[in-house]
Structure to design on (236 residues):
């Protein structure tokens, strides 16, 4: 187990290097465009706000360079560790295929439950989008939905463990998950705070780049972890 955990941490760290390149290539341009709109809007309102203090914080160069890399490395290491633990638990209990198949299923299900489904209900918004007065409610609703997504995924996997047919197992598990999460999406509040005047191309570029960066991190971590287990994990 210790060796698997080391493999997972190392896989996440190596994956963060690849993800950093993708984030710089597709993520930062979208973020810069959104920030430019936010700055222009703040300047437009500055004349109406005497003695408005200047924002103090990390420079964009630092954010887009070392800050971004450190953040991705931390997330990658955590993701790799969780993948290693999930692999150790699922292998031989819930999943009985090869290492590649087991890691592939864990990664696909986790990516769907942690990234894709919450994003469908609460899509990411760039700077200059969103009401500051609702940030608490939005954050609470998002994490409640995320926690329910993970809990429902765990329940669905456990519920179909004894089903002999793989086809029926997939259908039943998907039905359980989809039913619960659809109901949750209806019950939980929605927040439609995008100004109609906000450029649609900037909004969707930001959301698409966010998904691309996350997909790169998850896929790269899974690929490196599979390679490490196959190359050095014969005894685990």
């Amino acid at each position: 187990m210790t060796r698997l955990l080391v493999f997972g941490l190392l896989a996440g760290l190596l994956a963060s290097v690849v993800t950093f390149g993708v984030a710089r290539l597709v993520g930062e341009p979208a973020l810069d465009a959104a920030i430019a709109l936010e700055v222009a809007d703040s300047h437009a309102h500055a004349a109406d706000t005497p003695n408005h203090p200047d924002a103090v914080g990390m420079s964009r160069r630092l954010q887009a360079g070392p800050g971004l890399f450190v953040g991705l490395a931390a997330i990658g290491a955590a993701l790799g560790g969780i993948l290693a633990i999930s692999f150790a638990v699922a292998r031989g209990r819930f999943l009985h295929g090869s290492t590649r198949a087991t890691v592939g299923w864990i990664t696909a299900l986790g990516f769907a439950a942690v990234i894709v489904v919450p994003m469908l209900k609460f899509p990411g918004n760039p700077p200059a989008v969103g009401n500051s007065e609702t940030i608490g409610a939005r954050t609470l609703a998002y994490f409640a939905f995320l926690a329910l997504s993970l809990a429902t995924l765990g329940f669905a996997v456990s519920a179909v463990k004894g089903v002999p047919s793989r086809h029926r197992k997939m259908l039943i598990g998907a039905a359980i998950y989809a039913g619960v999460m659809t109901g949750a999406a209806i019950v939980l509040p929605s927040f439609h705070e995008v100004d109609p005047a906000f450029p649609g191309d900037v909004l969707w570029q930001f959301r698409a780049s966010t998904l691309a960066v996350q997909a790169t991190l998850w896929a790269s971590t899974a690929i490196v972890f599979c390679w490490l287990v196959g190359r050095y994990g014969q005894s685990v």
